[in-house]
Every structure is written in C-alpha cells, then in structure tokens.
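Example 9 (inverse folding). The structure is encoded as follows.
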C-alpha cells in the first residue's frame, strides 16, 4: 500500500477516535450515533465501519487511545534528582485540568456498563497494565522514603483508579471544572495518608 494512502488512513482513524471520545463522553454510548461521530470526523459512516467494524469496537478503541495518550504523559522519564512519586503526583495534578482526563473517566464508566460485550471486555488487559504502572511508581516512592512502607502498592493503585472513576461520575453530573475542584481536596487527603511520616 502506498505510504500516502497509509498516512491518510491513519489520519482518518485518529480523527474518528478523537470524535468518538468526545461524542461518547458527552452523549453516552446509547445516546451517541455512529452517524454523528462520522460527521464530526468529516467522514462517511461506511468509512467509520471500515476502520472499526462496530460501535462497541469504536468505543473500545476510543477509550484505549485516550488512555494511551494520558498514560504516555504520566510515563515520561522521571528526573533522577527528584522523588519519583512526587513527580508522578505533580503530573497527575496537572492532568486534573486536562479535559481528556474527564473524558477518559466518563468513557471508563460507560465501558463498565458494557463489560459483557466482547470488544469492551477486552479492556481488562489495558486496566491491568495501567494498575501495574501506577503500582510500580508507588513502589519507587516507598523505596525512596516518601511513601509509607506499610501499604501495598497494588492496593494503592486500585484506590487511585477508583478516584478516577469518581472523577468521571462527578464530571458527568457537574461538569469537568467543578468535578476537578471537588476532587482536589480528596486527592490531597489521600496523598497525606500515603506520605511517610517525617523523621525528627
């Protein structure tokens, strides 16, 4: 296949994923049509199905794409001079103001309701990878002395994921900005509980 055609196909796919993420997060899975998504991406509905095959597959791909972008930012190399968990927290706080995070949280909530669907059920592997990356950063913070050693890194990762689901729920009800403001004190409390006590 010619390179130009491949690049054009990649651009079309990317536009569809962005349009789907926005549309699903605003209108929900059942309240959003593939025709609306195709129109927002500037392509025909048959083109959408050529790339994704089904509405469920499109939701799965949109969620994975959105999560991948955000995780790539969280996973960027850390500064060796600073505490790894502190750096991770700073990045996570910056993402609270990023509309993609609220979008991802809402998409995850919709996916939970459709977890029996084959394509949507495939997201389990993505979640396992996300939790493992968070747990690894927590373990680094424990090793560096900034995080309490009497907590399980894997359980902390689960709690962080639970907070992201709460964010998605609140953003759907209250809007992204109010949800971020309301969630900020919860994040502060959670981080305070994780901090290792300072030695005298």
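The amino acid assigned to each position is listed next.
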């Amino acid at each position: 296949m010619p390179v130009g055609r491949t690049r054009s196909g990649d651009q079309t796919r990317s536009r569809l994923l962005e349009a789907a993420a926005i549309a699903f997060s605003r209108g929900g899975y059942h309240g959003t049509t593939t025709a609306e998504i195709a129109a927002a991406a500037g392509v025909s509905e048959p083109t959408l199905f050529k790339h994704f095959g089904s509405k469920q597959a499109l939701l799965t791909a949109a969620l994975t794409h959105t999560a991948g972008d955000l995780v790539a930012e969280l996973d960027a190399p850390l500064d060796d001079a600073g505490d790894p968990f502190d750096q991770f927290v700073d990045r996570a706080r910056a993402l609270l103001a990023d509309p993609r995070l609220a979008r991802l949280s809402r998409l995850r909530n919709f996916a939970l309701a459709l977890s029996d669907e084959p394509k949507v059920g495939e997201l389990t592997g993505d979640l396992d990878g996300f939790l493992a990356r968070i747990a690894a950063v927590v373990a680094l913070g424990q090793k560096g002395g900034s995080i309490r050693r009497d907590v399980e890194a894997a359980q902390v990762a689960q709690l962080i994921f639970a907070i992201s689901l709460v964010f998605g729920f609140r953003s759907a009800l209250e809007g992204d900005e109010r949800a971020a403001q309301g969630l900020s004190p919860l994040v502060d409390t959670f981080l305070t509980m994780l901090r290792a006590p300072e030695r005298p």
